[in-house]
């Protein structure tokens, strides 16, 4: 069966973008990920090993198009690219200022292949990174190569999973298309934290007396200093948990689950998969450390799916919009 659209999965991690886009009828024609452990998980679930460093396809001493031709044509370029400073950013805050960063590799591929849509994700603080210069470079560089750019901070909680995970999403069209981000759809998948918790959990996930005492001591010390740092405790009735991070494997302090008459416990890998919206048959890494890191670095699948649906709605019924230059400030219109 012919796919409805094709896409490439850059900085692929464990394939959060891929799951969402394949659900909507897309076919992945190229994937790239440099972390060997993430590549192992990717292979377990999709039957292919992503290509490594994307710069191998965009940096060459000869014509860059020679290598980017090894990337198939595609309708959508997607990826959660790293947040890097554009240290040489000048007054123009555009394409040339992005050189030396992995975002420049996205620009290079987009400039040659001209996909209909660029669908990008990053941490919320990207907007204010380097006093707003980073975001201004991104917006204006995309504009320079002919894309209409939209951006918004979206929380995973607002798209049905019990996690307060706010990320900025950038959607850019090769045509002047009108686009709107999805409306809130809370509790559409899970209504509370208890819905993602496993019924029987091995004792290995219960934190030790020593670690629990350390968490409590650090919380007291932080409160005495007047700041809000410390562990966070949730239970079955909580509406959502904090953002799971790549460091969760270290001590689990950002998300501890209350256990009556016992020390709290950390989430299991399956529970981490659920708060990121992964399907029940998703195969996570055999190493707990790597599985926690990978889920902490991942996108929330329901957010990707919701935004994607709106992208296709916009493509199906485009409204022409003006092609004026973006302002040189950290805002994408």
Automatic annotation (TrEMBL):
EC id: 2.1.1.37
Q: Which GO terms describe its biological process?
A: DNA restriction-modification system; methylation
The record's SUPFAM superfamilies line, in alphabetical order, gives: S-adenosyl-L-methionine-dependent methyltransferases
Provide the active-site residues from the annotation.
Answer: 83
Which UniProt keywords are given for this protein, alphabetically ordered? Methyltransferase, Restriction system, S-adenosyl-L-methionine, Transferase
- GO MF: DNA (cytosine-5-)-methyltransferase activity
Question: Which family does the record assign?
Answer: Belongs to the class I-like SAM-binding methyltransferase superfamily. C5-methyltransferase family.
What NCBIfam families would the database entry show? dcm (TIGR00675)
Please state what the protein is called.
Cytosine-specific methyltransferase
Instruction: Name the source organism.
Output: Pelagicoccus albus
